[in-house]
Structure formats: C-alpha cells, structure tokens
Amino acid sequence: MTVLVGSLVPLLIRLRKPVAESEYLLVRMNADLPLLLKEMRATTENLNALVEHARGGVEHAAVLLHAAGALGDTMQRVHETVQGSSRSLLVNLASILAGFRATTGVVTARSHREGGTNNGR
Fold it and tell me: 0.70 cut: is pTM over it?
C-alpha cells in the first residue's frame, strides 16, 4: 500500500497544475460565454435583416426586369408595325409610280398618234 500511495503522490502533484488551469479556463469561459452568445444573437439578427433587405432588392429587380421585358416586347411590336407600314408604303409608292408612268406613256402615245395637237384641237 505504501508503494501505491508513494506512486500516487507524484501523479497527484503533476495533475494539480492542469486541474488548476482547467478550473481557470472554466471560470473564464463562464464569464465570456454570455457576452459571446449576446454578440452571436446580434449578428444573427443583423444577418436576418440583411437577408430581408436583399430579398426586397431581388423583388424590385424582378419587377424592373419584367418592365424592361415588356418594354422590349412593345419596341419589337412597334418595329414590326413600322417595318410592315414602310413595306406597304413602298408598294403603294411603286404602284403610284407605275400608274404615273403608264399614264404618261398613254398620254405620250396619244399625242404622237394625233399628230401633236394642242389641247385636243
């Protein structure tokens, strides 16, 4: 038994310092932990507010992009309308020009056939 006590005493002496350090660490953690938890709660609240703000920004961006898409669709329709109108205008202009040429051709041909009379005389 003396041998057992003799070997346990040095072991207990060596364990005394780590136990004291552990106790100091636990006391310090006990003091620091409430502050740390309070800061974590504040950080979480800030993060939640930031996420809500970002969500609102994304919703506004979606509305803006939807409006830009509608504007693009309208511009496409206007472009198609102008393009179609300009084609029909060109066709009408070509028809008028062809009619004018045909009329001048008929007038010229009649004036040559009738011997160049003025004003139908």
Answer: no
